[in-house]
Amino acid sequence: MRAAYYERVGPADDVFEVGEQPVPEPRSGEVRVRLTCSGVNPSDVKMRSGARGSELPFPRIVPHSDGSGVIDAVGDDVMDHAPGTRVWVWNAGWRRAHGTAAEYVVLPAEQAVPLPDSTSDEAGACLGIPALTACHAVLCHGGVKGQSVLVAGGAGAVGHYAIQIARARGAGQILTTVSSAEKARLAEAAGADAVIDRHEDIAARVAEFTGGAGVDRIIEVDLATNAETDLGALRRGGLIVAYGSSAPTVSIPFFPAILNNTLLQFFIVYELEASARRAAIDVLDELLAQERLQHNIAERIPLERIAEAHARVERGEVMGNVVLTIA
Fold first, then answer.
1. Are the C-beta atoms of residues 102 and 62 closer than 8 Å to each other?
2. I want to staple 187 with a disulfide (CB 3.0 to 4.6 A). Which of 3, 192, 211, 242 is the partner?
């Protein structure tokens, strides 16, 4: 099979190779998926570039955790996944050497989720990290029904889904921050009630939109940059759900946080508890079946040009998801 891989960290053009690898065989409890698309996420870029350390956990890595395709073989004891089923996959490359940047991937059966006929393969390759992250951020701590929600970076891969899922789950008011007029239009089309330029005084603008109360929940992409602003925009007893940070260490003003009884939830989508992941998958299944989600596919790039795809994500050149197409 054709696969992209690297054996050391560094610039994409320097370390990626594309070549033939053995076709994997499913063992007991596993399925094999013939992949059509592979999602490129910032976490994939950070691992390959060395931003998460120079030592690789495996001698050779086929990257990417997200993808979509068709089950073509199943191992023993797999009863509820039949060959021929279209699926999207999650955590394919998490703590594993072989992800979705290949023609085939083998993984535990529960990590392959049926994909509705109405959902494209490209969209399926965006569900494992962006959509599941957004969904858990909306669902955790009782969900957003009736709440006012601020989504930081509403035109990003996670933020775009978070706006839509919050709307579908009954949020009362959805605000978001963006950095350009083009991104503002995308966020508004996703269902944001108000868009705030991130160069403005965000806390002051949130106060305007909420009658001075602040928002009930903030879904935060960059806690290191926005922690102080978030505390100013949050109501008393409000919740910050942080799934990302531009720096490994975050400074949080303690007295504003404690005086407002602020709640702070950290999570990484790779390590969700099984019950939380199941809840998020069930909601995504429902919304996909109802065709209620917009999927912002910014680029479709062939597998052989994986280095270009990584470089574009790394430079922040795209607004939306980058997907590799696999012949």
1. yes
2. 192
The DSSP string of 77-138 is T--S--TT-EEEESSTTTTSSB-SSBSEEEEEGGGEEE--TTS-HHHHTTIIIIIHHHHHHH
b/e burial code for range 115-141 (CB count within 10 A of at least 16 → b): beeebbbbbbbbbbbbbbbbbbbbbbe
Specify whether the backbone of 252 is left (phi greater than 0), alpha (psi in -120 to 50) or beta. beta
- Contact present, 52 and 44 (Cβ < 8 Å): no
For 278, the token pair is: 């199941």
Question: Domain range for residue 113?
Answer: 2-126+295-325
Strand, coil or helix: what is 219? strand
* Whole-angstrom distance, CA of residue 115 vs CA of residue 102: 19
Coil, helix or strand at residue 217 = strand
Domain assignment of residue 56, yes or no = yes
Q: Domain check: are 153 and 232 in the same one?
A: yes
Q: Retrieve residue 198's tokens.
A: 């991130």
Report whether 47 contacts 62 (CB < 8 A).
Answer: no
Comparing 45-54, 120-129, 264-273, which segment has the lowest mean pLDDT?
45-54
141 and 256 together in one domain: yes
Tell me the per-residue pLDDT of 144-195, one tens digit each, with 9 for 90 and over.
Answer: 999 999 999 999 999 999 999 999 999 999 999 999 999 999 999 999 999 9
Is the whole-model pTM more than 0.90?
A: yes
Per the model's pLDDT, the better-predicted residue between 51 and 258 turns out to be 258
The structural domain count of the chain equals 2
Q: How far apart are CA 38 and CA 98, in angstroms?
A: 12
In single-letter form, the type of residue at position 189 comes to A
Rounded to whole angstroms, the Cα distance separating 265 from 270 reads 15
Give me Rg for the CA atoms of the chain: 20
Task: Report the CATH number that the domain containing residue 209 is assigned in CATH.
Answer: 3.90.180.10
Identify whether the C-beta of residue 195 lies closer than 8 Å to the C-beta of residue 188.
yes
